[in-house]
Write a structure and sequence with these properties.
The chain has about 250 residues and is of the alpha/beta class. It has helices spanning about 1-25, 45-65, 80-90, 130-145, 150-165, 170-205, and strands at about 40, 65-75, 100-110, 115-120, 245-250. The protein has six helices and five strands. Helix 4 (about 130-145) packs antiparallel against helix 5 (about 150-165) and helix 4 runs antiparallel to helix 6.
Length: about 250
């Protein structure tokens, strides 16, 4: 009898969890339809800027295969910014399958929230630190002045410049700071590398008869430069099957 009662209680608790989970999903904010590269559900982007941004992003994808999409919302409806942004990026499947070079720029007006979500493949160039710089130094100053359309347009240009490694597209306020950060990382890396080389040398020196070959490879990204807002025309847009792991940065204005 005790076993039967225990089973009944377990079933009751399980059913309660199922109901609560279903209710939560019922009222959760749904991922908006992917209408194109610019999904302005908050109606804050000017028509001319939208056309130029779409053309810029199409040109960027044609040259690099990287996919960038913008989503503006009136509200997140109590959803967590980072979780919802990742959910959108994964649902839309931005970026190419196998390359995972997608980027999502999400803006929610009521919460004054901004998020740049980066795919696995985009993180090498568009690091979390650089996303943070774009938000703080490009988007936030314009948003605080009410220039939402301009802030988004300039953010897209900076993102494109970093992905293509074209410094002419990156603002000085972003370029200088992340260049300084890169210098510090480079100095640290060189020190560590020197210590490793010394240790390896000592091991070889004190181990007669052993031989080793040590080389250092280099990686060059597949992105090319030259994207600009002056390209024209755009077509239908859909995600290419990319994946995301929560990389990027968030901010508020």
């Amino acid at each position: 009898m005790r076993l039967i009662n225990s089973i009944k209680k377990l079933i009751s608790v399980s059913c309660l969890f199922v109901v609560l989970f279903s209710v939560n999903n019922l009222f959760a904010l749904k991922v908006p339809e992917l209408r194109g590269r610019v999904n302005d559900y908050a109606n804050i982007i000017k028509a001319d800027d939208k056309t130029q941004i779409e053309s810029f992003l199409k040109n960027l994808e044609d040259k690099t295969s990287a996919q960038i999409a913008i989503l503006t919302l009136k509200t997140l409806e109590d959803e967590d910014l980072e979780s919802f942004s990742l959910k959108v990026a994964e649902t839309w499947k931005l970026g190419q399958a196998g390359k995972d070079n997608g980027v999502l720029l999400l803006v929610s007006m009521e919460e004054h929230a901004i998020r740049i979500e980066t795919g696995y493949g985009a993180e090498e160039f568009l690091t979390d630190a650089k996303c943070g710089l774009i938000i703080r130094n490009i988007i936030v100053p314009e948003f605080q002045k009410g220039n939402y359309s301009k802030g988004i347009k300039e953010a897209v240009e900076n993102i494109g410049g970093i992905l293509t490694q074209d410094e002419t597209l990156v603002a000085d306020s972003v370029l200088k700071e992340y260049s300084d950060d890169d210098d510090e990382v480079s100095d640290t890396f060189e020190i560590i590398l020197s210590l490793i080389i010394i240790i390896i040398f000592l091991i070889i020196y004190f181990s007669p008869g052993k031989r080793g070959r040590y080389g250092r490879g280099s990686y060059r990204g597949s992105y090319s430069s030259g994207s600009s807002f002056h390209s024209s025309g755009h077509s239908s847009f859909s995600g290419g099957g990319g994946h995301f792991g929560g990389g990027g940065a968030s901010g508020h204005w």
